[in-house]
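User: I've been trying to design a sequence by hand for this structure and keep getting stuck. Would you show me what you'd pick, starting by listing the structure so we're on the same page?

Assistant: Good idea, let's start from the same input. This is the structure you sent:
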Protein backbone atom coordinates (compact mmCIF):
# COMPACT_ATOMS: atom_id res chain seq x y z
CA UNK A 1 0.00 0.00 0.00
CA UNK A 2 2.78 2.44 0.92
CA UNK A 3 4.69 1.51 -2.24
CA UNK A 4 1.58 2.14 -4.36
CA UNK A 5 1.06 5.53 -2.67
CA UNK A 6 4.67 6.50 -3.30
CA UNK A 7 4.29 5.40 -6.92
CA UNK A 8 1.23 7.56 -7.45
CA UNK A 9 2.56 10.65 -5.70
CA UNK A 10 5.44 11.56 -7.97
CA UNK A 11 7.11 14.95 -7.39
CA UNK A 12 5.81 17.80 -9.52
CA UNK A 13 7.82 18.68 -12.61
CA UNK A 14 8.16 22.47 -13.03
CA UNK A 15 7.96 24.16 -16.40
CA UNK A 16 11.11 26.11 -17.25
CA UNK A 17 11.73 28.88 -19.75
CA UNK A 18 15.21 29.64 -21.08
CA UNK A 19 14.39 32.44 -23.51
CA UNK A 20 16.44 35.65 -23.32
CA UNK A 21 15.36 39.17 -24.11
CA UNK A 22 18.47 39.85 -26.20
CA UNK A 23 17.83 36.77 -28.36
CA UNK A 24 14.17 37.54 -28.85
CA UNK A 25 14.98 41.19 -29.61
CA UNK A 26 16.85 40.14 -32.77
CA UNK A 27 13.87 38.04 -33.89
CA UNK A 28 11.42 40.83 -33.03
CA UNK A 29 13.29 43.61 -34.83
CA UNK A 30 13.86 41.52 -37.98
CA UNK A 31 10.19 40.51 -38.01
CA UNK A 32 9.14 44.17 -37.85
CA UNK A 33 11.51 45.17 -40.64
CA UNK A 34 10.40 42.35 -42.95
CA UNK A 35 6.71 42.98 -42.19
CA UNK A 36 7.16 46.60 -43.26
CA UNK A 37 9.17 45.66 -46.36
CA UNK A 38 6.57 43.08 -47.48
CA UNK A 39 3.50 45.15 -46.50
CA UNK A 40 2.53 42.59 -43.87
CA UNK A 41 2.86 39.44 -45.97
CA UNK A 42 5.82 38.26 -43.88
CA UNK A 43 3.66 38.38 -40.72
CA UNK A 44 2.81 34.67 -41.11
CA UNK A 45 6.49 33.70 -41.18
CA UNK A 46 7.12 36.13 -38.31
CA UNK A 47 4.50 34.36 -36.21
CA UNK A 48 6.09 30.95 -36.85
CA UNK A 49 9.56 32.25 -35.92
CA UNK A 50 8.20 33.79 -32.73
CA UNK A 51 6.24 30.71 -31.65
CA UNK A 52 9.11 28.37 -32.44
CA UNK A 53 11.39 30.46 -30.24
CA UNK A 54 8.86 30.42 -27.37
CA UNK A 55 8.08 26.71 -27.69
CA UNK A 56 11.70 25.58 -28.05
CA UNK A 57 12.69 27.54 -24.96
CA UNK A 58 9.86 26.09 -22.87
CA UNK A 59 10.78 22.78 -21.26
CA UNK A 60 9.26 20.11 -19.03
CA UNK A 61 11.41 17.39 -17.45
CA UNK A 62 14.41 18.58 -19.45
CA UNK A 63 12.72 18.37 -22.87
CA UNK A 64 11.44 21.36 -24.83
CA UNK A 65 8.24 21.74 -26.81
CA UNK A 66 8.14 22.48 -30.54
CA UNK A 67 5.91 24.27 -33.04
CA UNK A 68 5.43 23.05 -36.63
CA UNK A 69 2.97 25.58 -38.10
CA UNK A 70 3.01 26.19 -41.85
CA UNK A 71 3.29 29.94 -42.63
CA UNK A 72 1.26 29.45 -45.82
CA UNK A 73 -1.68 28.14 -43.78
CA UNK A 74 -1.41 31.11 -41.43
CA UNK A 75 -1.25 33.50 -44.38
CA UNK A 76 -4.29 31.81 -45.90
CA UNK A 77 -6.23 32.20 -42.67
CA UNK A 78 -5.30 35.86 -42.36
CA UNK A 79 -6.31 36.43 -45.96
CA UNK A 80 -9.72 34.93 -45.22
CA UNK A 81 -10.12 37.09 -42.11
CA UNK A 82 -9.01 40.27 -43.92
CA UNK A 83 -11.27 39.61 -46.92
CA UNK A 84 -14.23 39.00 -44.63
CA UNK A 85 -13.53 42.18 -42.66
CA UNK A 86 -13.15 44.36 -45.75
CA UNK A 87 -16.19 42.82 -47.40
CA UNK A 88 -18.29 43.43 -44.30
CA UNK A 89 -17.11 47.04 -44.05
CA UNK A 90 -17.80 47.96 -47.68
CA UNK A 91 -21.07 46.04 -47.87
CA UNK A 92 -22.73 48.57 -45.57
CA UNK A 93 -21.73 51.38 -47.92
CA UNK A 94 -23.41 49.57 -50.81
CA UNK A 95 -26.58 48.48 -49.05
CA UNK A 96 -27.61 47.87 -45.40
CA UNK A 97 -29.44 44.73 -46.57
CA UNK A 98 -26.23 43.32 -48.08
CA UNK A 99 -24.43 44.19 -44.83
CA UNK A 100 -26.99 42.28 -42.77
CA UNK A 101 -26.83 39.26 -45.07
CA UNK A 102 -23.02 39.24 -44.98
CA UNK A 103 -23.06 39.55 -41.19
CA UNK A 104 -25.31 36.48 -40.96
CA UNK A 105 -23.03 34.55 -43.30
CA UNK A 106 -19.93 35.50 -41.30
CA UNK A 107 -21.66 34.53 -38.05
CA UNK A 108 -22.50 31.16 -39.58
CA UNK A 109 -18.88 30.51 -40.63
CA UNK A 110 -17.00 32.14 -37.73
CA UNK A 111 -17.32 29.28 -35.17
CA UNK A 112 -16.06 26.77 -37.74
CA UNK A 113 -13.01 28.94 -38.45
CA UNK A 114 -12.25 29.23 -34.72
CA UNK A 115 -12.52 25.47 -34.34
CA UNK A 116 -10.18 24.95 -37.29
CA UNK A 117 -7.77 27.47 -35.78
CA UNK A 118 -7.73 25.55 -32.47
CA UNK A 119 -7.09 22.32 -34.37
CA UNK A 120 -4.27 23.97 -36.30
CA UNK A 121 -2.58 25.35 -33.17
CA UNK A 122 -2.69 22.12 -31.18
CA UNK A 123 -1.89 19.75 -34.02
CA UNK A 124 1.20 21.83 -34.82
CA UNK A 125 2.37 21.75 -31.18
CA UNK A 126 4.43 18.81 -29.95
CA UNK A 127 6.34 17.47 -26.98
CA UNK A 128 8.90 14.65 -27.35
CA UNK A 129 7.77 14.11 -30.92
CA UNK A 130 4.11 13.61 -30.01
CA UNK A 131 1.51 16.00 -31.35
CA UNK A 132 -1.32 17.58 -29.42
CA UNK A 133 -4.81 17.54 -30.89
CA UNK A 134 -8.27 19.07 -30.68
CA UNK A 135 -11.50 17.13 -31.27
CA UNK A 136 -14.16 19.65 -30.27
CA UNK A 137 -17.59 19.16 -31.89
CA UNK A 138 -18.81 21.77 -34.35
CA UNK A 139 -22.05 22.17 -32.39
CA UNK A 140 -20.04 23.07 -29.29
CA UNK A 141 -18.16 25.72 -31.28
CA UNK A 142 -21.44 27.34 -32.30
CA UNK A 143 -22.70 27.18 -28.72
CA UNK A 144 -19.75 28.99 -27.13
CA UNK A 145 -18.34 31.15 -29.94
CA UNK A 146 -21.65 32.30 -31.41
CA UNK A 147 -24.70 32.02 -29.17
CA UNK A 148 -23.08 32.54 -25.78
CA UNK A 149 -20.72 35.22 -27.11
CA UNK A 150 -23.63 37.14 -28.63
CA UNK A 151 -25.57 36.81 -25.38
CA UNK A 152 -22.61 38.09 -23.33
CA UNK A 153 -22.17 40.99 -25.76
CA UNK A 154 -25.69 42.23 -24.97
CA UNK A 155 -25.85 41.15 -21.31
CA UNK A 156 -22.48 41.61 -19.62
CA UNK A 157 -23.51 39.53 -16.59
CA UNK A 158 -23.26 36.42 -18.78
CA UNK A 159 -19.58 36.98 -19.65
CA UNK A 160 -18.11 34.96 -16.72
CA UNK A 161 -20.38 32.05 -17.69
CA UNK A 162 -19.39 32.41 -21.35
CA UNK A 163 -15.69 32.59 -20.48
CA UNK A 164 -16.02 29.43 -18.39
CA UNK A 165 -17.79 27.61 -21.22
CA UNK A 166 -15.13 28.64 -23.74
CA UNK A 167 -12.34 27.26 -21.53
CA UNK A 168 -14.36 24.13 -20.86
CA UNK A 169 -14.82 23.59 -24.61
CA UNK A 170 -11.11 24.14 -25.27
CA UNK A 171 -9.68 21.98 -22.48
CA UNK A 172 -12.21 19.13 -22.47
CA UNK A 173 -11.69 18.57 -26.19
CA UNK A 174 -7.89 18.81 -26.27
CA UNK A 175 -5.56 15.85 -26.11
CA UNK A 176 -1.88 14.92 -26.03
CA UNK A 177 -1.32 11.95 -28.28
CA UNK A 178 -4.38 9.84 -27.48
CA UNK A 179 -4.80 11.03 -23.87
CA UNK A 180 -7.60 13.51 -23.25
CA UNK A 181 -7.42 16.67 -21.16
CA UNK A 182 -10.24 17.40 -18.72
CA UNK A 183 -11.46 20.59 -17.05
CA UNK A 184 -13.26 20.74 -13.70
CA UNK A 185 -13.40 24.43 -12.75
CA UNK A 186 -16.87 25.71 -11.83
CA UNK A 187 -18.84 28.66 -13.16
CA UNK A 188 -18.98 30.04 -9.61
CA UNK A 189 -15.19 30.37 -9.52
CA UNK A 190 -15.31 32.55 -12.64
CA UNK A 191 -18.09 34.73 -11.26
CA UNK A 192 -16.13 35.21 -8.03
CA UNK A 193 -13.08 36.50 -9.93
CA UNK A 194 -15.10 38.91 -12.04
CA UNK A 195 -17.17 40.13 -9.08
CA UNK A 196 -14.02 40.95 -7.08
CA UNK A 197 -12.54 42.63 -10.16
CA UNK A 198 -15.73 44.67 -10.50
CA UNK A 199 -15.54 45.78 -6.85
CA UNK A 200 -11.90 46.78 -7.35
CA UNK A 201 -12.89 48.75 -10.44
CA UNK A 202 -15.69 50.55 -8.59
CA UNK A 203 -13.33 51.39 -5.72
CA UNK A 204 -10.72 52.72 -8.14
CA UNK A 205 -13.28 54.86 -9.95
CA UNK A 206 -14.60 56.22 -6.64
CA UNK A 207 -11.10 57.23 -5.51
CA UNK A 208 -10.35 58.89 -8.84
CA UNK A 209 -13.72 60.61 -8.87
CA UNK A 210 -13.20 62.02 -5.39
CA UNK A 211 -9.61 63.01 -6.12
CA UNK A 212 -10.51 64.56 -9.44
CA UNK A 213 -13.42 66.49 -7.92
CA UNK A 214 -11.20 67.88 -5.17
CA UNK A 215 -8.47 68.97 -7.55
CA UNK A 216 -11.02 70.51 -9.90
CA UNK A 217 -12.54 72.55 -7.08
CA UNK A 218 -9.12 73.80 -5.97
CA UNK A 219 -8.15 74.84 -9.47
CA UNK A 220 -11.54 76.42 -10.07
CA UNK A 221 -11.19 78.55 -6.93
CA UNK A 222 -7.67 79.61 -7.87
CA UNK A 223 -8.68 80.40 -11.46
CA UNK A 224 -12.34 81.23 -11.15
CA UNK A 225 -12.53 83.08 -14.41
CA UNK A 226 -11.05 80.08 -16.28
CA UNK A 227 -13.27 77.44 -14.64
CA UNK A 228 -15.05 76.56 -17.88
CA UNK A 229 -11.78 76.01 -19.73
CA UNK A 230 -10.44 73.73 -16.99
CA UNK A 231 -13.43 71.38 -16.95
CA UNK A 232 -12.98 69.56 -20.29
CA UNK A 233 -9.24 69.21 -19.77
CA UNK A 234 -9.60 67.78 -16.27
CA UNK A 235 -12.29 65.34 -17.35
CA UNK A 236 -10.14 64.00 -20.18
CA UNK A 237 -7.05 63.69 -17.97
CA UNK A 238 -8.84 61.85 -15.19
CA UNK A 239 -10.71 59.54 -17.56
CA UNK A 240 -7.43 58.52 -19.19
CA UNK A 241 -5.73 58.05 -15.81
CA UNK A 242 -8.67 56.07 -14.44
CA UNK A 243 -8.69 53.67 -17.40
CA UNK A 244 -4.91 53.28 -17.25
CA UNK A 245 -5.01 52.44 -13.53
CA UNK A 246 -7.96 50.09 -14.03
CA UNK A 247 -6.09 48.20 -16.72
CA UNK A 248 -2.92 48.09 -14.62
CA UNK A 249 -4.71 46.74 -11.53
CA UNK A 250 -7.69 44.77 -12.81
CA UNK A 251 -5.92 43.18 -15.78
CA UNK A 252 -3.16 41.42 -13.78
CA UNK A 253 -5.66 40.40 -11.08
CA UNK A 254 -7.99 38.69 -13.57
CA UNK A 255 -5.11 37.11 -15.50
CA UNK A 256 -3.47 35.71 -12.37
CA UNK A 257 -6.65 34.35 -10.79
CA UNK A 258 -7.96 32.81 -13.99
CA UNK A 259 -4.63 31.18 -14.89
CA UNK A 260 -4.59 29.55 -11.46
CA UNK A 261 -8.21 28.43 -11.75
CA UNK A 262 -7.77 27.02 -15.26
CA UNK A 263 -4.59 25.03 -14.67
CA UNK A 264 -5.33 23.93 -11.11
CA UNK A 265 -8.49 22.33 -12.52
CA UNK A 266 -7.03 20.84 -15.70
CA UNK A 267 -5.83 17.23 -15.95
CA UNK A 268 -4.22 15.13 -18.65
CA UNK A 269 -5.68 11.70 -18.11
CA UNK A 270 -4.82 11.02 -14.46
CA UNK A 271 -1.99 13.57 -14.45
CA UNK A 272 -2.59 17.07 -13.08
CA UNK A 273 -1.24 20.58 -13.46
CA UNK A 274 -0.69 23.36 -10.95
CA UNK A 275 -0.33 27.13 -11.21
CA UNK A 276 0.60 29.64 -8.52
CA UNK A 277 0.64 33.05 -10.19
CA UNK A 278 0.61 35.96 -7.73
CA UNK A 279 -1.59 38.89 -8.77
CA UNK A 280 0.77 41.23 -6.88
CA UNK A 281 3.86 39.94 -8.71
CA UNK A 282 2.07 40.02 -12.04
CA UNK A 283 1.02 43.61 -11.39
CA UNK A 284 4.61 44.60 -10.56
CA UNK A 285 5.97 42.95 -13.71
CA UNK A 286 3.25 44.45 -15.91
CA UNK A 287 3.64 47.93 -14.44
CA UNK A 288 7.44 48.04 -14.64
CA UNK A 289 7.33 46.59 -18.16
CA UNK A 290 4.98 49.40 -19.18
CA UNK A 291 7.25 52.08 -17.70
CA UNK A 292 10.35 50.64 -19.38
CA UNK A 293 8.58 50.34 -22.74
CA UNK A 294 7.56 54.01 -22.53
CA UNK A 295 11.05 55.22 -21.56
CA UNK A 296 12.75 53.16 -24.29
CA UNK A 297 10.24 54.26 -26.96
CA UNK A 298 9.06 50.67 -27.40
CA UNK A 299 12.46 48.98 -27.67
CA UNK A 300 11.99 47.16 -24.35
CA UNK A 301 8.90 45.37 -25.74
CA UNK A 302 10.63 42.03 -26.55
CA UNK A 303 12.39 42.03 -23.16
CA UNK A 304 9.03 42.70 -21.48
CA UNK A 305 7.44 39.82 -23.39
CA UNK A 306 10.16 37.39 -22.29
CA UNK A 307 10.04 38.59 -18.69
CA UNK A 308 6.27 38.17 -18.44
CA UNK A 309 6.22 34.82 -20.23
CA UNK A 310 8.98 33.43 -18.01
CA UNK A 311 7.10 34.34 -14.84
CA UNK A 312 3.78 32.90 -15.99
CA UNK A 313 5.36 29.65 -17.23
CA UNK A 314 7.66 29.08 -14.28
CA UNK A 315 4.80 29.34 -11.80
CA UNK A 316 3.33 26.21 -13.41
CA UNK A 317 4.13 22.54 -12.84
CA UNK A 318 3.01 19.11 -14.04
CA UNK A 319 2.30 16.41 -11.46
CA UNK A 320 2.47 12.93 -13.04
CA UNK A 321 0.36 10.13 -11.61
CA UNK A 322 2.84 7.26 -11.60
CA UNK A 323 5.81 7.05 -13.94
CA UNK A 324 6.01 9.92 -16.41
CA UNK A 325 8.37 7.96 -18.68
CA UNK A 326 5.97 4.99 -18.80
CA UNK A 327 3.15 7.36 -19.73
CA UNK A 328 5.20 8.88 -22.57
CA UNK A 329 6.23 5.44 -23.83
CA UNK A 330 2.59 4.38 -23.97
CA UNK A 331 1.65 7.53 -25.86
CA UNK A 332 4.40 6.88 -28.42
CA UNK A 333 3.05 3.40 -29.15
CA UNK A 334 -0.50 4.68 -29.61
CA UNK A 335 0.57 7.63 -31.74
CA UNK A 336 2.54 5.46 -34.14
CA UNK A 337 -0.70 3.74 -35.11
CA UNK A 338 -2.42 7.07 -35.78
CA UNK A 339 0.24 8.42 -38.12
CA UNK A 340 0.40 11.81 -39.80
CA UNK A 341 -2.41 11.34 -42.34
CA UNK A 342 -4.52 14.07 -40.72
CA UNK A 343 -1.83 16.74 -41.11
CA UNK A 344 -3.47 18.35 -44.12
CA UNK A 345 -6.90 18.58 -42.46
CA UNK A 346 -5.99 21.50 -40.19
CA UNK A 347 -4.71 23.99 -42.74
CA UNK A 348 -6.31 27.27 -41.67
CA UNK A 349 -5.26 29.55 -38.83
CA UNK A 350 -7.14 32.82 -38.29
CA UNK A 351 -5.40 33.75 -35.03
CA UNK A 352 -2.94 36.65 -34.91
Amino acid sequence: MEQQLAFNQQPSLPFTFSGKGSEYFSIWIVNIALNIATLGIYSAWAKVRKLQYFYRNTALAGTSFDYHGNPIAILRGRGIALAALLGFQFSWQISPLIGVVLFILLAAVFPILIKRSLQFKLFNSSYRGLRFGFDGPTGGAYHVFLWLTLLASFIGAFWPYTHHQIKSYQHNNSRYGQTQFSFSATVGQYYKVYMIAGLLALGTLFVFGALGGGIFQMMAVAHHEQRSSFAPFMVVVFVILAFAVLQAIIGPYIQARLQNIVWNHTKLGEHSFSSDVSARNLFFITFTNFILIIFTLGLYKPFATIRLLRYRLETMAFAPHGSFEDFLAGQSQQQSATGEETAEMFDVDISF
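That's my pick for every position. To get oriented when you compare it with your attempt: The longest helix spans residues 227-264. Residues 291 and 337 are 52 Å apart (CA to CA).
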